[in-house]
Amino acid sequence: MYAALDIEMTASGRTLLAGASAAIAPGRITVLIGPNGAGKSTLLKVTAGELRPQRGHVRLEGSDIATLPPARLALRRAVVPQHAQVAFPFTVAEVVAIGTPSGRFDPAPVARALAEVELSGFEHRAYEKLSGGERQRVQLARALVQLDPGRPDSHHGAGYLLLDEPTASLDLAQQILVVRLMRKLAATRGIGILAVLHDLNLAAMAADQIVALKEGRDVASGTPREIITDDVLAALYGVAARVGWAPGTPFLLPQSLDR
Questions:
Q1: Distance in angstroms (rounded) separating the CA atoms of residues 16 and 21
Q2: pLDDT at residue 158 above 90?
Q3: Domain-by-domain residue ranges, the chain?
Q4: What per-residue confidence (pLDDT) applies to 161?
Q5: Which of 38, 163, 219, 226 could disulfide-link to 34, CB 3.0 to 4.6 Å?
Q6: Which residues are CB-neighbours of 47 under 8 A, at least 6 positions away?
Q7: pLDDT tens digit string along 54-69?
Q8: Highest mean pLDDT among 17-31, 98-112, 145-159
Q9: Maximal C-alpha separation, the chain
Q10: How many CB atoms lie within 10 A of CB 51?
Q11: Which CATH architecture is the domain 2-252 placed in?
């Protein structure tokens, strides 16, 4: 289990998180939702260890991550940020290999990761010439190399993957592909996933557990069936919502503001 507990964060006199919590279980997907400024990305960064909270703590399989050496933490969790900049003309294989824990280029885990994100054969392509969706999948492959089953501590479990808005700026087909990859990694690899998603329909498709944040607090937590409801969404976003149902999954259709 990987959990951020009772996290409080302030910056420039502004409250970013006020006792927020989120947990990730192996083989399960937790999705953070909420309006802009709710604290979703901040909570993910605290969980990743990128930010240190003023109060509360983050525990990874029983250990406070503040006490873990960076190299050990990197073997247990990988992060795909919302925006990843590559400053040099790297090939796809070179970008993916950045995630190799040993620091040595090994083509085997690179090839495995690219196959998982459906980019086999892209190794020698220029990263800068890829589409936005392809770049996002390359970054996901980089994180998967970091969590490769052949890594030194693989006997400790599949690890955890943290994704900050992985579907942002992608077209519909690429969004669905990323969500499908998330579900596959959780189901077949046992990877625990924490993701920030703005699209509530994608959140309902992807999540086993949804944590709804508002003004830095986790105001609701539960399954998509429990969270994607008219009442919860009205309280969360301050708008009237009408939730429908596809087989087993809630979905939201935008409503006119004058209705």
A1: 13
A2: no
A3: 2-252
A4: 96
A5: 38
A6: 2, 4, 22, 24, 58, 162, 194
A7: 999 999 998 999 999 9
A8: 17-31
A9: 59
A10: 19
A11: 3-Layer(aba) Sandwich (3.40)
12 φ/ψ sector (left φ>0, alpha ψ -120 to 50, else beta): left
Which of 105-109, 120-124, 141-145, 233-237 has the least mean pLDDT?
Answer: 105-109
Residue in the block written with tokens 């943290």: 162
> What 8-state DSSP symbol labels residue 65?
G
Enumerate the β-bridge partners of residue 211.
32, 221
Mean pLDDT within 174-203 = 93
Pairing between β-strand 29-33 and β-strand 209-214 as defined by DSSP bridges: parallel
- Number of Cβ within a 10 Å radius of residue 44: 24
Handedness of CA 33, 37, 43, 45 (dihedral sign): positive
- Specify whether the CB–CB gap between 177 and 136 falls below 8 A: no
Using H for helix, E for strand and C for coil, what is the string for 4-59?
EEEEEEEECCEEEEEEEEEEECCCCEEEEECCCCCCHHHHHHHHHCCCCCCEEEEE
106 versus 212: the higher-pLDDT residue is 212
CB 9 within 8 A of CB 51: yes
The model carries a pTM of 0.90
Per-residue pLDDT at 43 exceeds 90 = yes
Q: Nearest to residue 89, comparing CAs of 121, 122, 127?
A: 127
Strand extents, DSSP E, 28-179: 29-33, 55-60, 63-64, 77-80, 160-164
| Residue corresponding to tokens 């980089």 | 142
What confidence tier does 257 reach under pLDDT thresholds 50, 70, 90? very low
